[in-house]
Specification:
The structure holds 2 protein chains of 2 kinds. Chain A is α/β, with parallel strands linked by helices. Chain A contains 5 helices and 5 strands. In chain A, helix 2 packs parallel to helix 3. The chains are: A alpha/beta, B alpha/beta. Chain A: InterPro entries: CheY-like_superfamily, Sig_transdc_resp-reg_receiver, ST_Response_Regulator.
Chain lengths: 121, 282
């Protein structure tokens, strides 16, 4: 079973995403900000991270840069999942090492295809 | 808002008369949802009132709008993915060899809805420019609904629509931000054309299609009409062309004009027979 770490400061978004991911047979972990997400990755690297952009303590972008800098061999796929839906943000995310990008709002089909495209579903 | 049997029958009759499509029991549950926006927009207080206006024939344009609203226009880019892989892997390499002299391919997306299938096909070719250099690829999308054909021509999609089926790199390569969402870039729009067409009517110009995609359309037709559509498509294809249907759709028991391609599961070839089809249950 593949593992997904949902990183989002919104409990509601985490709950919705968890529901979708569990129907896609993922084992799901949650983090409320980038710092907590880094700690979780240090403890056990997931297969994929579903990452919000704006969060307290540490943003999604800061988390992504730090994650990629650490150069672990078992780097997870990172799928941004955010309301930052303009071209500039998308390009910045890809340059920082994101593998995919989901613009909120989204549905199960969209997320499923994105996870297939990065090779984890 | 409750939809009575008599109202359902009137709406079903209207849809069938205009498009040939059936409003099956399984689709009747969505009548209320499908028509809610139209009722709001036109200030019509109830479905009964709508039916009254339709029956009295007071507003002919309303009937068109009702039909447009009842059609299922669900689609997304590279829908189901596997069919596009199959085309890339199997049909296109063969056609590339066979059409080497003319360097011309014509593809028909029949029942194209808002155009995502046609644009997906266009991306297949555009993403391999060296391979297809010098080729003329004519991609035609048709649909019975004027409204969706208009949208397809615009190539304008909401944020929700544009990311359904597209990887992010594909999206930012082939779409640009606009005030209302995302629009297919001009080089992509240039390679596709769209027109209003009912599949029960003669096939669109120029005919002689190398590939026809008719996915998730035939399930809304009765078996007799399916047979007619298969005939129309067969007549409009080159003898060595391919037909692709939706997942769960088949030619078996529906027509004698097509047979499964034993070398490429999911693709259908024209048979040698030009006999009229015999539809099961017709």
């Amino acid at each position: 079973m593949k593992t997904c770490l949902i990183v989002d400061d919104s409990k509601v978004i985490r709950k919705v995403a968890r529901h979708i991911l569990e129907t896609l047979e993922f084992q799901v972990e949650e983090a409320g900000d980038g710092r907590e997400a880094l700690d979780r990755c240090e403890a056990k690297m997931p297969d994929v991270v579903l990452l919000d952009w704006n969060m307290p303590v540490m943003s999604g972008m800061e988390f992504l840069k730090l994650l990629r800098q650490r150069g672990h061999s078992d780097q997870p796929k990172v799928v941004f999942c955010t309301t930052e839906n303009d071209m500039a943000h998308i390009r910045a995310a890809l340059e920082a090492g994101a593998d995919e990008y989901v613009m909120k709002p989204f549905d199960r089909e969209t997320l499923h295809i994105k996870l297939q495209l990065v090779g984890v579903a | 808002m409750q939809v009575s049997d008599s109202s359902s029958r009137i709406l079903a009759g209207l849809l069938e008369a205009r498009t040939g499509q059936q409003l099956t029991m399984s689709r009747r549950w969505r009548i209320e949802t499908a028509l809610a926006a139209l009722l709001r927009e036109r200030g019509i207080p109830s479905l009964d009132e709508l039916i009254t206006i339709l029956v009295m024939g007071r507003e002919p344009s309303l009937a068109t709008q009702v039909v447009e609203a009842l059609l299922n226009n669900e689609t997304y880019f590279f829908r189901d993915r596997a069919p596009f892989d199959l085309l890339s892997r199997s049909a296109l390499p063969k056609l590339m060899q066979r059409r080497a002299a003319t360097k011309r391919l014509t593809i028909w997306s029949a029942g194209c809805s808002t155009g995502q299938e046609a644009y997906s096909l266009a991306m297949l070719f555009a993403e391999d420019p060296v391979k297809w250099a010098g080729w003329t690829i004519d991609i035609l999308g048709t649909d019975v609904s004027e409204a969706v054909v208009r949208r397809a021509r615009e190539g304008q999609y909401s944020q929700f629509e544009v990311q359904r089926g597209l990887g992010i790199n594909q999206m930012i390569r082939w779409f640009e931000e606009t005030e209302n969402g995302w629009r297919a870039v001009e080089p992509l729009r240039r390679t596709v054309r769209f027109q209003v067409q009912n599949l029960l009517e003669p096939a669109p110009h120029p005919g002689k299609f190398d590939i026809v995609l008719c996915r998730n359309v035939l399930l809304y037709l009765n078996s007799e009409r399916r047979g007619v559509v298969f005939d129309r498509i067969a007549d409009a294809m080159v003898p060595d062309g391919w037909l692709m249907l939706g997942a769960g759709e088949t030619v078996i028991g529906q027509t004698r004009r097509f047979e499964a391609d034993s070398e490429a599961r999911g693709l259908y070839r024209r048979t040698g027979t030009d006999l009229p089809q015999i539809a099961v249950g017709a």
